[in-house]
Specification:
It is built from 13 helices and 15 strands. It is an alpha/beta fold. The protein has two domains: about 5-195 and about 240-265, 3-Layer(aba) Sandwich (Rossmann fold); about 200-235 and about 270-325 and about 345-360, no CATH class. The chain is globular. The N and C termini lie far apart (about 50 Å).
Length: about 375
């Protein structure tokens, strides 16, 4: 059997570290080549050494996780011509996670990383001589400002976008869809909002819904309790990182996955008010008040200097007010028989909160507002 060699982007990110570890554990003959920007090279090398030692491939055993300096914005991925050619002769699979995820990212920067970088990865995959498949990580939020049910089979429905992150990830997925149509074996993974581990609560950064915890914590001194924020019926779709990892790997190995798109989303998400009310009860000891702050007023507040003190960027508010539901029919169907399913958010959310409480003061944990 041909040895699998994977090109991987997005290491040493939180999701990337977990996926590479799981892949190496599952296949003793697998080799992974991580393409890493120069500024992250030292951190990646340390993370790779720690990971290999943890899973038993470290000192005394042949290494199977390699860190190469590269750059997805370069047409040859920052590799020399000889190395590029050598890799295209051996790589059989690619996982492309590297992207700019900042909701406030400037358009030119987002286009360079998310769109041009994806095009260069696609060109590399086409050049590989023994290529089996590409697993491309998109996002549920390529749906932009669409509301209602968002299906996995849909992409370009004439939607607008709330920020450059969404628009550039949409255009990048368009490129992947074109490549699939022209014969490249690839599949698309669209995560919803990724949070910490459902069993331990562990995460690298406190962003997304954790901004809600921070906001409530800053206002917990309000004597009568806190009013609702935004649209109470809007769903906030969270997926724990461990489910994203196990589901993505399981899907990548299933017959019939190539050519399809899979939304890794919670089929039974909480509504925004339910989530906010839980934060209020845990942090202030009181339920949220039945009155609501209008979304526009809250957005203005978060855009003001007061917003920095509150610790939540105005961009995140739109994800608590947006009436979209993310269908995961294809995901559920292809995972049948694997034992992999999305954990109940009501069961693991307390662990996320406990981890946040224990670690929120640590340097580098809190994402910038």
């Amino acid at each position: 059997m041909e040895k699998r060699k994977i090109l991987f982007t997005g290491f040493p990110g939180f999701i990337g570290k977990r996926i590479t570890a799981a892949l190496l554990k599952a296949d003793a003959d697998l080799e992974i080549i991580c393409l890493v920007q120069e500024k992250f090279l030292s951190d990646a090398q340390k993370a790779a050494a720690q990971l290999e030692e943890k899973i038993g491939t470290g000192p005394g055993k042949a290494s199977r996780l390699f860190v190469y300096k590269g750059d997805i914005t370069d047409s040859h991925l920052g590799f020399s011509d000889d190395l590029y050619r050598q890799l295209t002769q051996g790589i059989t699979e690619a996982w492309h996670l590297a992207a700019i995820y900042d909701l406030a990212v400037p358009e030119s920067f987002a286009r360079k990383i998310n769109i041009e970088g994806t095009r260069h990865i696609l060109e590399f995959c086409r050049a590989c001589q023994k290529f089996d498949k590409l697993i491309y990580f998109s996002t549920c939020y390529v749906a932009g400002n669409r509301t209602g049910l968002i299906k996995e089979t849909e992409l370009d429905e004439g939607q607008g976008f709330k920020n450059h992150y969404e628009s550039t990830k949409f255009l990048a997925e368009v490129e992947v869809r074109k490549a699939i149509a022209s014969g490249l074996p690839a599949m698309v993974i669209r995560p919803a909002v990724v949070v910490g581990d459902s069993m331990t609560g562990e995460t690298d950064k406190f962003d997304g819904p954790y901004f809600g915890m921070q906001l409530v914590s800053q206002l917990k001194w309000v004597p009568l309790g806190l009013p609702k924020v935004g649209a109470s019926l809007a769903e906030v779709n969270l997926v724990p990182v461990d489910y994203l990892v196990t589901a993505s790997i399981a899907i990548s190995r299933r017959p019939g996955a190539v050519g399809k798109t899979f939304q890794i989303a919670d089929p039974k998400p909480l509504q925004a008010f339910e989530l906010y009310d839980l934060f209020c009860r845990w942090i202030t000891g009181k339920p949220a008040l039945p009155i609501s702050i209008p979304p526009k007023l809250m957005e203005w507040t978060l855009a003001s200097p007061l917003g920095r003190w509150l610790g939540a960027p105005k961009e995140v508010l739109t994800y608590f007010n947006h009436g979209a539901r993310y269908d995961s029919t294809q995901t559920t169907k292809i995972l049948e028989g694997t034992g992999v399913k999305c954990p109940d958010v009501r069961e693991y959310l307390p662990r996320l909160h406990q981890y946040w409480q224990a670690h929120r003061q640590e340097p580098g944990r809190q994402a910038k507002a």
